[in-house]
From TrEMBL:
The keyword Cell inner membrane does not apply. Its cofactor is Mn(2+). The keyword Manganese applies. InterPro entries: D-lyxose_isomer, EcSI_cupin, RmlC-like_jellyroll. Gene3D superfamilies: Jelly Rolls. It is an enzyme of class 5 (isomerase). It comes from Shimia haliotis. Keywords: Carbohydrate metabolism, Isomerase, Manganese, Metal-binding. Coiled coil: none annotated. GO terms for molecular function: D-lyxose ketol-isomerase activity; metal ion binding. Belongs to the D-lyxose ketol-isomerase family. This is D-lyxose ketol-isomerase.
């Protein structure tokens, strides 16, 4: 992805988030230079990979297959492993109309996916086999706003603003916006996007960036290069 396109997506996403009454934390608006001067005080933000995240899954077609995310807060895997401390995470996502977030599951993370506003959120679901692999012929059970719901393999559940689904490890899912763009909330156990996203197809989680202009704000995938 070109950095100019990433900068445009950030500006558009910030406008949509504000339109639905959410305000991002101050570090969201730091310039790269400001971030560099605050690396010591912002060490948790960096280590927990909080902040802007835009991906085309390495496919180069963001409008067809991609996702915008902002990680608001996140604990560390070490907290989860020892069973105490900050064992949770929270994100905002934007799924554009017909923009696919491809079929995947998680080994560790359980998550609530919440339609925070906009159009209809469609979630396509499959179950796992006994080894946790994608099972084309298996459904399962999820909680929708705390109510148990059985789904068939490949069933597409639709969620209006305010509605949600709880996905457990082994629940294979893909999602997109239907009829317009959707602002999504995600509340989960500790989030580790580097190792805990298992995709059905052999795709990447992070985009390759072409630096055609300076970054407006750093992405979480920039931290290693820009902040050390």
């Amino acid at each position: 992805m070109k950095r100019s396109r990433i900068n445009q997506i950030i500006a558009e996403a910030d406008e949509m988030i504000r339109r639905f009454g959410f305000q991002l934390p101050p570090f969201a608006y730091w310039t790269p230079d400001e971030f560099a001067t605050r690396t010591q005080s912002a060490r948790h933000v960096i280590d927990a990979r909080c902040g802007w995240d835009i991906t085309d899954y390495g496919d180069g077609c963001f409008d067809e297959m991609g996702l915008f995310l902002f990680t608001l807060r996140n604990g560390l895997l070490s907290d989860l492993q020892r069973g105490g401390g900050m064992c949770y995470a929270e994100k905002l996502l934007i799924s554009k109309q017909d923009q696919l977030s491809p079929m995947h599951t998680h080994v560790i993370k359980a998550e609530d996916i919440i339609n925070r506003g906009g159009a209809t959120l469609v979630v396509e679901l499959y179950g796992s086999d006994d080894q946790g692999n994608f099972a084309e012929d298996r459904g399962g059970v999820v909680m929708c706003d705390g109510i148990k719901r059985t789904f068939a393999a490949g069933e597409k559940l639709r969620f209006a603003p305010g509605e949600s689904v709880t996905l457990m490890p082994g629940d294979w899912h893909a999602f997109w916006g239907e009829g317009g763009d959707v602002l999504i909330g995600e509340v989960s156990t500790v989030n580790d996007d580097e190792t805990d996203n298992i995709f059905r197809a052999p795709i990447g989680r992070f985009a390759e960036i072409e630096e055609d202009e300076a970054p407006m704000h750093l992405l979480v995938s920039d931290y290693g290069k820009w902040l050390g």
